Amino acid sequence: MTDSLNQTVLITGASSGIGLALARDYLINGARVFVLARSQDKLNGLAREFPASCIPIPVDLTDKKSSQQAADLISAQTQHLDLAILNAGTCEYVDVNHFRLEPFNKVMAINWQGTLNSLTICLPLLRNMNKKNDYADQRSQLVVVSSMASLLPMPRSQAYGASKIALEYLFNSLRVDMAQEPIDITIIRPGFVKTPLTDRNDFAMPFALSAEKAVSIMVKGIAARKWIIQFPLPLVFIMRMLAFMPLKIQTWVLQKLSRASH
Ligand SMILES: NC(=O)c1ccc[n+]([C@@H]2O[C@H](COP(=O)([O-])OP(=O)(O)OC[C@H]3O[C@@H](n4cnc5c(N)ncnc54)[C@H](OP(=O)(O)O)[C@@H]3O)[C@@H](O)[C@H]2O)c1
Q: How far apart are CA 7 and CA 223, in angstroms?
């Protein structure tokens, strides 16, 4: 159970996979949720299930003008946000034998620029939270969905991993500069989660979880205002052990994985 009654929540990438499962969880538990994505039909479908509390905002977050229009739509309907979950993202694998810029541009457009555009939308509304009803102790929360791939240089993940490491740097350093502000910042590092994104994967996904199971772990961690939420634990353990090892050993192990995945 999520303690989300009366919360106003914004979720990006809410038309599919993790974002959709997150939106459902908050809606079921009584939150008012702004759901953002490009697929208007899917957002409208969710809004039909929760007509009183789900507000669909169709937007291409890679596009500045579309993001500004979304910001105007949202701020016309709320003066504050309790929680913003910046989840929209994609993954493209790189073939180093046919090095092209496309996967880098595609991944960076949504994972990096899309998250920056989302921040521009939600930050003023998160900052308004503690002005709501003059409650000095009200804190809002900013959450970003990174990935376990940020821990190690995973095979074919040059674009995806770089985008997630950039996001973690951004959010960790926001935490430094915003220490005096009543906004908690949470970074989520999922392992493999079964979604339309990972349905495309042509390799085994160890310890893969359903979107619902992943979301139950995420909402508990968000409610506890953890700085980092990472799961599943067996994969966290393996990845962290490897990350502690000297780079030469790390690289040797990952090269074996790389060959196995070709
Ligand atoms: N699944 C995993 O194993 C896994 C593991 C670690 C981290 N993650 C991260 O979790 C997040 C969600 O992934 P997922 O697996 O749930 O993928 P998904 O099912 O493909 O969902 C991605 C969401 O992002 C939205 N999106 C993509 N481009 C967009 C754009 N230009 N503007 C607005 N919205 C956009 C999509 O909506 P539209 O297409 O309708 O725009 C969709 O709602 C991603 O950041 C991913 O990197 C996933």
A: 12
Helix (H) or strand (E) holding 2: none
Q: Which atom of ligand 1 is nearest to the CA of 20?
A: 43
Integer Rg of the chain from CA? 18
pLDDT at 39: 98
Pocket test for ligand 1, best of 195, 209, 217, 235 (most atoms within 8 A of CB): 195
The H-or-E segment that residue 56 falls in is strand 54-58
Which protein residues touch ligand 1 with a CB less than 6 Å away? 13-19, 37-39, 59-62, 87-91, 110, 114, 145, 147, 190, 192-193, 195-198
What value, to the nearest 5°, has the Cα angle with vertex 122 and ends 2 and 43?
65
Please choose, from the candidates 37, 117, 128, 43, the residue with its C-alpha nearest in 3D space to the C-alpha of residue 82: 128
β-pairing, 183-190 vs 193-194, is unpaired
Distances from the Cα of 112 to the Cαs of 3, 17, 57, 103, in angstroms?
Answer: 30, 19, 20, 13
- Give mean pLDDT, residues 40-50: 98
Query: How confident is the model over 211-229, as pLDDT tens digits?
Result: 999 999 999 999 999 999 9
Distance 114 CA to ligand 1 centre (A): 11
Which residues are CB-contacts of 209 (< 8 A; sequence separation ≥ 6)? 190, 191, 192, 193, 194, 217, 231, 232
Angle at alpha carbon of residue 161, lines to 159 and 162, rounded to 5°: 65
